Each structure stands twice: as C-alpha cells, then as structure tokens.
Amino acid sequence: MKHSILTFSLIAAAMTVHANTPLELSGYQCRVMAVESSEDVQRAENSMETARLDVGVAKTGYLPKLDGNVTAVYSPINYDLGDLQLITKGTYMAGLSLTQPIYTGGRISAGNKLAKIGAKASEEQYRMTRMQTISDADNAYWTYVAVLQKVKMVEAYMSQMDTLYQAMDMRRLKGFLTKADMLRVEAKKSEIEYQLQKCLNGADLCRMALCRVIGVPFDTEIVPTDTVIVVERIDMYDYSITDRPEFQLLNLNVEASHHKVGLVRGDFLPSVGLSIAYTHYGNIRLKGNMPMQDGNSVYINENIFSNGLNAMLGVKIPLFHWGEGIKKVKKARIEETNARLELEKNTRLIDLEIRQAINNLSSGYAMIETADVALRQAEANLEAVRERFSVNKVTITDVLDAESQWQQSYSNQIEARAQYRIYLTDYRRATGTLTENSDI
Questions:
Q1: Which of 198-212, 217-231, 297-311 has maximum average pLDDT?
Q2: How many Cα neighbours within 13 Å face the side chain of 412?
Q3: Sign for the pseudo-dihedral over CA of 31, 34, 37, 40
Q4: Rounded Cα distance, 381 and 406, in Å
C-alpha cells in the first residue's frame, strides 16, 4: 500500500509539473514506479487472482449440486386411452434435483491439487515478472546516471581545453607557439564539442528509456538523486537455487504432471453418484366418459396434478474402450518424465547463470579497481605534463595526449561503476533475491 501511494504521487507529479521542471528520483523510487506501472506485472497479478478463483471452483467438486428445471409441453394431439382422452396441451413439469458425487476415481481430488499447484505457479510467475521489471528499471536508471556523469566529464574537459586555449593564445602572441599548434588545439576543441553533443543525445535517449520503464510521459525531465555511483564489494556469495522462481515453476510442473496422470486414470475408473429429485406435474387433463360397473358411464373432465420424490444411486463402470485409457495414461506418464528431464536440464542452466552472475560481479569489481588506478595515474600524468609544458619542456601534442588519456580513464571509471551496479542487480535476480529494497 505504501508503494502504491508513493508511486501514485510520483506519477501524478510527473503528469502535472511543467515540462522544464525536473522530477528528482532515486533508484528505489524508479523501481517502485516501474513495478506499479508495468502492464506485465498487472497481468501477472490478474493471473494470480484467476488462479485463486480456480482453486475455489475446484473445491466445489466435493459439494452437492442443486439444480432446478421447468418444462412446458404443448401438443395439439390428444392421446386416446379407451373411452378417455389424455390432453397434454399446456402441461408443465417443475422440479429440483440434488446430486452428490461419492466416488469419481480420484478426479476431483486431482483437480483440486492441480488448481492449488496452478495458484502457486501464478505466484512464482508474478515474482519472476516483478524481478524482471525491477531489473529493467535498474538497467535504465544506472545507464542514465552514467551518461549524465559522462556529460559532466566532457563539459569539464571542454572547460579545461578553453583554459588551455587561452593560455596558448597568450604564448602565441609572445612568439612561443606557432599557428599550427593553435590549430591542433582548435581541432581538439571541435572534437570535444562533437563528443559532448553525442553524450547529450545519448542522455536524452536514456532519459526517455527510463520514462518508459517507470511509466511517465516521455517529455518528463528526470534528475537522478544518485550523483555518485557508489559500489560495495561482495565477498560472500550465499545463495540457494531454490529461491529462483524459474526453479519453483519447474518443480511445480513436475508435480502437476504427476497429478495429471491420476486425473487421466480417473476417467477410466468407476464413478458413483447419488441423486435425489423432486418433480411436480401439472395441467394434465383427462376428458371423456368412464364406464362404471353397473353399465352406466360418468363424464370426466379434470386436471391432474401430481408430485414425485425419488432417489437414485448411479454407478458408472467403463468396460471396453479399445485401450483408450491405457494409451492416455501412458502418454501422461511420458509427459511427467519429460517434465522431470526439463527440471534436470534447466536446474543446471540456472546454476550456470548464477555462477556467471557471480563471475561478472568479481570481474566487474576488478575492473573498477583497475579503472580507479588508471584514472589516478592519468590525473598525475596530466598534472606533470602541464607543469613541464609551462616551462617549455614538452609540446602541445603531449598535453593533448595527456588530456585525452585522462578523459578515457575517467570514462572507463564511470562505465565500470555503472556496469557493476547492473551486475549486482543481475546477481540478485539470478539468485531470486531481487526486491525493491535490494542493494539500494
């Protein structure tokens, strides 16, 4: 309920604010909004509700069923009964029947078990859909954060180049630099402007992708509250494959296949049912002369009304169906075997996916450490080259190379940190532990 209120407030704000007013969002808020606005999650919720209804429907199989019936007869033909006529024009019948299954060959029990399995499967499907939606939100959010950081980095790079160009222009006026040196810097500035425009375009595309995931208009300006991509190393990888919704779905499929064997077998076993019926007949007319024992006759013209109550115990025993039952049961058992094989196969694949996610986390953090070292070295090198350039010990080409190396190292660090956050989300999803509050 708290999530729904938060999401409604955020989406309402996004719908009503001016186009130039930014919407500040954290990674957690994006997750909540994505879940609440996802059509896939809503369909999964509806599937859970229908599965619960199926459980209720299956339970009614144990209960007696009461039915009512009304029949009206109109026949222009009168039936001769000797000297009397039976007139059924306008005859009606009304009644109630109560039917109670006593033994159905295990079909009702199997149907109830299958309905409960279906309800559990819908819950796992919902959990899987929810985690995938959170994963999509994280991917879009951290990609957007990374691109915005790159924009700031390129803007800082542009500022550095402007400062360098001004200093060089003064040196050129003093005769220390040539026109060719100035052209090199101008060309580099043009290249950086091009890179900045690419980053701005990329940031706009990432913003719209995030808008789509969290369910707000595409023209909504979003400002991430995470201005720094914070990462924490995970050294202990404690997980259980049974936490994965996919693993639970595979197990439920095996269980369902087993009960389907009993359901099919029940179609070819005896069934016993008890039926109690009450029927009322009305407007059956007898008309004519009825002879008496003394030789006289009596004219009769009357309506007959009657009531009837009866009970019936029915037993149905399948005797000969050309081997249909044996073949269907054998088919159901083969499908159960296939479900077990599918479980074994996908269990290995799920375990492999988890191990790959763990490997991505380990290598991703190693990439962060490498990128941090490379950036520190690039910063130190840039500072040293600038000092040497100030005393004419290196050329402008050396300065531009050092600036370019710093830019690339900074970009690598941003990418490594953003990718690690995405790897962390993938790890939580792979281990079945991803929720809105995971690793925020």
A1: 198-212
A2: 20
A3: negative
A4: 8
Token pair of 349 as six digits: 């694949």
Q: Name the pTM for this structure.
A: 0.85
| Residue with token string 């990718």 | 419
- In the block, tokens 């249909």 appear at 324
Per-residue model confidence (pLDDT) at position 9: 54
Return the percent helix, strand and coil in the chain, to nearest 5.
Answer: 65, 15, 20
Quick one: average pLDDT of 7-33? Answer: 72
Q: Which bin fits 392, alpha (ψ -120 to 50), beta or left (φ > 0)?
A: left
* Tokens standing for residue 115: 């309905």
**How far apart are the C-alpha atoms of 137 and 204, rounded to whole Å?**
16
d(CA 22, CA 364): 32
Amino acid code (one letter) for 25: L
Predicted local distance difference test score (pLDDT) of residue 11: 53
Distance between CA 166 and CA 382 in Å, rounded? 18
Condensed to tens digits (0 to 9), the pLDDT of residues 167-178 reads: 887 777 777 677
Q: Which of 62, 61, 51, 6 is nearest to 29 (CA)?
A: 6
Over the chain, what is the mean pLDDT? Answer: 89
- Tell me which residue has tokens 């099919």: 264
Buried b (16+ CB within 10 A) or exposed e, 9-29: ebbeebeeeeeeeebebebbb
How far is residue 145 CA from its own chain's centroid?
25
C-alpha span between 132 and 144 (Å, rounded): 18
Residue pLDDT, tens place only, 290-317: 777 776 777 777 777 788 899 999 899 9
Q: Are 254 and 340 in contact (CB under 8 A)?
A: yes
With beta carbons less than 8 A apart as the criterion, state whether 431 and 357 touch.
yes
Q: How far apart are CA 96 and CA 60, in angstroms?
A: 19
How would residue 18 be classed by pLDDT, with cut points 50, 70 and 90?
Answer: very low
